[in-house]
Amino acid sequence: MKTNLTRWMIAAAALAVAAGSASAQTYNAEVPLSFHVNGKLMAPGDYQMRLSDSGAIKAVIVYNRDTHSSAILLASGRADVANAMRKGGHAAITFECSGGNCALSRLWDGDNAFAYTFPALKTKAGEPRAEVITLTLTRAD
Fold this sequence. Notes:
The protein is α+β, with helices and mostly antiparallel strands and 141 residues long. The chain has one domain (2-139). It is built from 2 helices and 12 strands, in the order αβββββββαβββββ.
């Protein structure tokens, strides 16, 4: 039952994003590693990431241009952006990696004082989060 509810919530968010949004920004990135988005394994490659902000729903549509696969990720909150990153002024995505698994954890649009955060990488008990990888995004809009 919980799985179906989660799927319906994701489907509703996807419809809201697809129907149009108050603001949307598109970014490109070459991602050199495999990573997870909502439990779906995404292959390394050329990605387009569309940040949609339709009021209550903040989401990122992650699209692999090489494999034509996509996934949607709902923002779970906001976090401060490091001063060094803000001085660079370039949009960025951050991945959390542990035990060979990586997951998209943040997206910063290059303008705001905060980054959108996404659900944390699920790890085994006692397994440390060993690595954070940040990639620069380029605006596609």
